[in-house]
Structures are given as C-alpha cells and as structure tokens.
Write a structure and sequence with these properties.
Blueprint (H helix, E strand, L loop, with lengths): L2 H15 L4 H17 L4 H12 L3 E4 L2 E4 L5 E5 L5 E3 L5 H14 L1
Antiparallel strand pairs: 1-2, 2-3, 3-4
Helix pairs in contact: 1-2, 3-4
Length: 105
C-alpha cells in the first residue's frame, strides 16, 4: 500500500465519521495538506519552479526538461532510471524533479 492509498483509506474513515465539528474540519484540512505533500508534482509545476531559478522559460518534452529553444537540456531521465543534470540547481529543485520522475513510474 502506498502512502497515498493509506491516506485515501483514512479519508474515507474521516468522511464516514464527520460530525461537522471544528475537529472534523481540522482533520479534513490536515488530510488535504498531507495529500498535497504526497502527490508528485506535475511537469508544469516543475517547469515553473525551474523557471523561477534559471530565469528562462522551461518546457517538458519526452522525458526531459528543456529551455524553450530545446537547445539546452536542463535535466533528463536516462534509460536506466538515472536523472542527468546539465546545469546547477538548488537541492529543493532537484528533490522536486526526483518526485516528479518517481510519479512517472
């Protein structure tokens, strides 16, 4: 069972036991935040974050992130599942990219 599947099981329990109290609302809000944290980012979200760091438009195409001219590959996933980077990126962006590729498996 994945963490997201476990969270969804918990959500079903919460919905069944919801008694419209502030506590129930807090638990549902916590569920939504945890789900957001566990959900892999989309290609668009990753592109936006890379753009914020590099200051240029980034696109995702065929497993790789490129600048808009598709002349400079920012990162790509190789045949053996390794991620290759052609530029320096801060750790939080590398983590975001890793989470994106994990979601593609």
């Amino acid at each position: 069972m994945t963490p997201l599947q476990a969270l969804e099981m918990l959500a079903q329990f919460i919905i069944e036991k919801d008694d419209n109290t502030d506590f129930s609302a807090s638990v549902i809000e916590a569920h939504n935040e945890i789900k957001k944290a566990l959900t892999p980012p989309t290609a668009d979200e990753v592109c936006e974050e890379i753009e914020n760091v590099l200051g240029e438009k980034i696109i995702y195409n065929c497993g790789s992130f490129y600048n808009t001219r598709e002349t400079a590959e920012v990162c790509a996933i190789g045949n053996l599942g390794s991620v290759y980077f052609s530029t320096h990126l801060p750790p939080h962006i590398i983590t975001l990219i890793g989470r994106f590729y994990e979601g593609q498996e």
